[in-house]
Write a structure and sequence with these properties.
The protein has 216 residues and is an all-alpha fold. The chain is built from 7 helices and no strands. Helix 2 packs across helix 4.
């Protein structure tokens, strides 16, 4: 019975990660507020519920890479103004991997009704970690701004990024709440989840189809 329940949990986690990755790609393809995507929440969810450490890091980063690849192809085709690949992207990937590790430390199979407060606390810590690492990458790789490379320009870079941090934190808190609450509910009503996921994917696919550029 325990193995059967564990197998259902693994399937549910995998399904939710797939749906989140598709939603993330859809949002990134559409006009949206910068950083208001579920990528960070996906990393936190993977870190919390995928027991294999390398797999927990690999899956969200793979989803992120596929999204970046699609965005870059759209950029090369002239459908987007900004490229999917950029100089400091590898540092952002490291930052997202750190978010997974923070979630593994703070949330890994330890979330229940008595310690639900760990979710927003861990989310806040992971968002801070991403902010520090990613903006260090912006400062380090920029060849136009933040010259010369010294402590003063590093502080300037962090100060300039604060408005983006609040958006990123809001997205992480919001999407993480939705992901974890959905997981608890779907885990209880497991047989309903496939219908819900199928409907969700259908709406997302239809939305993507409607927004595809017309190529003559």
């Amino acid at each position: 019975m325990e193995n059967k329940t564990e197998n259902k949990t693994h399937k549910l986690v995998s399904a939710m990660l797939v749906v989140t990755a598709i939603v993330s790609l859809y949002i990134r393809l559409m006009p949206h507020i910068p950083n208001l995507t579920p990528i960070g929440a996906m990393c936190l969810f993977a870190g919390a519920y995928i027991s294999h450490r390398k797999l927990a890091i690999l899956l969200p980063l793979l989803a992120l890479f596929i999204g970046d690849l699609v965005l870059h192809i759209s950029y090369l085709q002239g459908f987007r103004e900004f490229a999917g690949f950029y100089d400091s992207m590898y540092i952002n990937y490291i930052a997202f991997a750190v978010m997974v590790l923070i979630a593994r430390f703070g949330l890994n199979n330890k979330v229940n009704k008595t310690n639900w407060f760990k979710i927003p606390m861990t989310t806040f810590a992971a968002s801070i970690g991403f902010f520090i690492i990613s903006n260090f990458g912006v400062w380090l790789t920029s060849t136009i701004m933040y010259i010369p490379k010294n402590f003063a320009t590093l502080v300037e870079c962090y100060i300039a990024a604060i408005p983006f941090f609040w958006t990123f934190l809001a997205a992480d808190l919001g999407y993480t709440a939705v992901l974890f609450a959905s997981f608890f509910w779907l885990k209880k009503y497991f047989f309903s989840c496939f219908i819900i996921l199928l409907i969700t994917l259908s709406f997302i696919a239809f939305g993507i189809f409607l927004h595809l550029p017309n190529v003559e």
